[in-house]
Amino acid sequence: MEKVNQTFFLSHGSPMLSIDDTLEARQFFKSWSGKVFQHKPKSILVISAHWDTEFPSVNTVLHNSTIHDFNGFPDPMYKLKYEAPGAIALAKRVRELLMGGGMKRVDEDTERGLDHGAWVPLMLMYPDADIPVCQLSVQSSQTGTYHYNMGKALAPLKEEGVLIIGSGSATHNLRKLDFSITNGSAVPWALEFDHWLRDSLLQGRCE
Predict the structure, then answer these.
(1) Where does residue 187 rank: exposed (0-12), middle (13-18), buried (19+ CB within 10 A)?
(2) 168 pairs with which residues across the strands?
(3) Is the distance from CB of 11 to CB of 164 less than 8 angstroms?
(4) Which of 174, 148, 170, 79 is nearest to 119 (CA)?
(5) For residues 69 and 96, is the Cβ–Cβ distance under 8 A?
(6) Cβ(110)–Cβ(61) under 8 Å?
(7) Three-state secondary structure along 31-70?
(8) What SS3 class is residue 27?
(9) What digits encode the pLDDT tens for the residues 91-114?
């Protein structure tokens, strides 16, 4: 079995990424399989910031529907679909690993499709939608150490041909976003956290 040996955290940005060709990040995602990561994975596990549950949950569906979990955007965006096959075997493997790693409960959602934290970047990265995809929820009520331990439990998937993608943003507070004030530059509190996150990762901090 081919190894993937890579895990990525991707900032999926605004849902406008799905249609606005002027966004620089869109070009990055479109170049993914040609320049960034040329290995085609057997399946994909996406941990999206837009699926937040009390307990870890995986979606177990045959075919992923497209969840348009945003409001106030141009009409064409609500017609977009990314119907990648589901990855039921991967979902059950994720559940097995998490339970083996100490999680007392991992739920299976037999109806949920892909939220925009998953399908927007994936439709640019893998436009053929031919790779099975599973989503895993986050628990914002839990700590960073809790999620770090989840990651450790899932590490064997990299040896099993699975591409693991964390999708979200290092900071996210649209109510504080005012381009007329920041002129497109990062606000101090966001920059401070970004530097802390970078340094923590480089120093191997997990608590």
Answers:
(1) middle
(2) 11
(3) no
(4) 79
(5) no
(6) yes
(7) CHHHHHCCCCCCEEEEEEEEEECCCCEEECCCECCECCCC
(8) helix
(9) 999 999 999 999 999 999 999 999
Give the pLDDT of residue 6.
81
189 exposed, middle or buried (CB, 10 Å; 0-12, 13-18, 19+)?
A: exposed
Is the pLDDT higher at 183 or at 37? 37
Cβ of 106: how many Cβ atoms within 10 Å?
21
Question: What is each CA distance from 38 to 6, 35, 42, 56, 203, in whole angstroms?
Answer: 12, 6, 13, 30, 29
Exposed, middle or buried by CB within 10 Å (0-12, 13-18, 19+), for 160? middle
Q: What is the pLDDT of residues 2-53, one digit of tens each?
A: 667 789 999 887 888 899 999 889 999 999 999 999 999 999 999 998 999 9
Q: pLDDT value at position 106? A: 98
- The separation between the first and the last C-alpha atoms of the chain, rounded to the nearest angstrom, is 33
